[in-house]
Write a structure and sequence with these properties.
There is one protein chain. This protein is mostly helical. The chain has 22 helices and four strands. Strands 2-1-3-4 form a four-stranded parallel beta sheet. α22 links the parallel β3 and β4. The longest helix is centred in the middle third of the chain and has 28 residues. It is globular.
Amino acid sequence: MDWHFYLYGGATSIVLAVLSFFFLKRTGLAIFLLLAGSLLIRLFAISLDFHLHLWDEQFHAMVAKNLLDNPLKPFLYKHNFVPRELAFWDLGHIWLHKQPLFMWQMAVSMKYFGVNAFAIRLPSAILGTIGVFFIYRTGRLWLGKNIGFLSGLLLATSFFTVEMMTGIIHTDHNDSIFQFYILASIWAWSELEHSQNKKRGFWIVLVGILAGCAVLNKWLTGLLVYLGWGLTILFNREKRVQPKYYLELAISVVICLITFLPWQLYIWSEFPKVARFEFEYNSRHLFENIEGHGGDVWYHFNAAKKIYGIHPLILFPLIMGFWFFKEVPRTFKIATISYFVSIYLLFTVAKTKMIAFTFSISTITYIFLAFWIFHLFRRLKSRLKLFDSGKYLLAGKWLFVMLILSLAHFNLKAPQIIENHTSEKAEGGTFQNLREYNARYFQRISEINKKETYVLFNTSKYDEIPAMFFGNFASAYNFKPSKELVQKVKSAGFNVAILDSGDLPFWIQSDSEILKISGYRWIP
């Protein structure tokens, strides 16, 4: 299948969405087309690579595949022939390095769409598309439908957001889906703030569920919505003296706890040693440079250019300047600025730094940017007074629409996405090319191993995970086995297979019970 059709279809749908919104005034149709375009672009992007990416994606995928058998048993190595219970996240048997919700979603996707990379990425694409609607609603509720639509357009065509869904950026689907739940909880709170008394109970509960899902995806920064909610009560003279607003907040927090606490209690009861190890290891991210992921105090400010494509000296003054506009509701200003400042402050202070740590509030940033785009064009229009009537009014609309479509084009960077996923493969012999070849190779030989009866040895480093994922091996290791280990595997009722590198020990070559497999390409 030529997945480029989805890119062209998505781009066409987005162009039609913009035209429908600004010329036909068909808001419902425009939002439908925007969502369709967003989904098609994401389907295109997640289909570019057959293989799983290093680092994180392949480990998330492998655990998700094992969760198909038992959603309460998060195994990286389901059959553990080399004991390493408390090993780091790339080696361990029981895998508690991340909260499980996004991997449960991957498992459900694989149940219906098969064990493949596309199914792994599909939940990110679907939720990312739903997120476009949520950001539209959030922007519309607080700032009007024009800014809501522009916010949705910026998110739908966000290069960094789309690339996160492909798995090529570290933390991949974990942060991609976390972004969704943070946005979803803020959207539900926004609906609460604009709802009548009869409907408030529904939104209070929904905020709690969505915030709980955010925590169950990436831990306690998922509680972010409550920071803004609480501050807007304290800074409102009428609300801060009325107990009912604190009660609503408390009820939502309780719902949130009910959502994410059971898993925490379960893993501390079922896997206490591993749970303690991971809790202590993850806590060290605040005080230590873990795994070489460090940076100076300006790290996340500079990273903003990669996420949004805007120089930080322009981006951050625009965001802070948002506070001074009287037309922006004070409640929204307090909440959103507090979200932005708290996340950047937290991860600036933290010693471990990775580019996507602040990605969770990117949707808020897109609302800020949409506000500024609309505000600046409106100011330009009023200053020039060229587009107020007659043919100039139509010319002004066309100018604005062309600017918006150009912005969407440069925001998406479709040629860069294609190059990121195809240039190395076309060269042959490169890392990505070898990963792609071996993934397809493992899938071909999986036909001999449908029931996971073989344990594989002698892969390249980190290719043992694709071997288990695509090749259906019960377990896989990147070294040649000892006689004792071969006997251990056989005694457990499994067969032994080894990738033939041409330098196998004589005792392995002469053992007819060991399956030797050729045709594999080792990655340096």
